[in-house]
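Nitrogen-fixing NifU domain protein
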Amino acid sequence: MLNKSIKKENLENPVDIRNTDGSGWLYSDIVKDHFFNPRNFMQYGEEEKFKFNGLGRVGSPACGDEMVLWILVDEKSEKIIDCRWRTFGCGSAIASTSVLSEMIIENDGMKLEEALKIKPQDILERLGGLPARKVHCSVLGDKALQEAINDYFRQTGQHNRIITAGKKVIDKVLNITDNDIEEAVLEGARTLEDLQKKLKVGVGDPEAIPQIEELLKFYFEKYYEV
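Structure:
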């Protein structure tokens, strides 16, 4: 069911996408617009030119939707002044990321404290709603933004501001979680040295190293061993 606060005109010309069983999903004009005309999309090869100081990656193309979000934060104002994204997934996932990118940089940029308050419901409302089976796409957008902001905090040495709710903290000095280690493995880390080069995990908290090595082995076997 769509949020009651969604304006009726957003669904004036819904797009009917049929399943193989004949049932249909209704997509608003807004979803269609963001799918066919995505805003702030990161073109391949553009990564080297785009200046950013926060990167969030959630999901995995091996098992479903994946979203990657690059943000540029002005350190003085703590506003997100630019962003790019790339999504591997369905039309709903693409539209959700597109509209999220629009939300966080409009009106000269959103402050980090406000961006962290964005909920999946806010993305859904901006889109004019999504079919019930596609609501998880807006959740991925919410998580990608939080990961990008956490990365900004980590890159600027603000480890006390990293959001760790719902995750297990492995390195208590740098607030590095099991999710951070999992993402590092998905991005190519294969050894403890790889992890420390990327995250500095265990450098200031050497007692965590045995657990870090266990997680490294677990995630490598989970994703790469047949």
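The longest helix spans residues 136-155.
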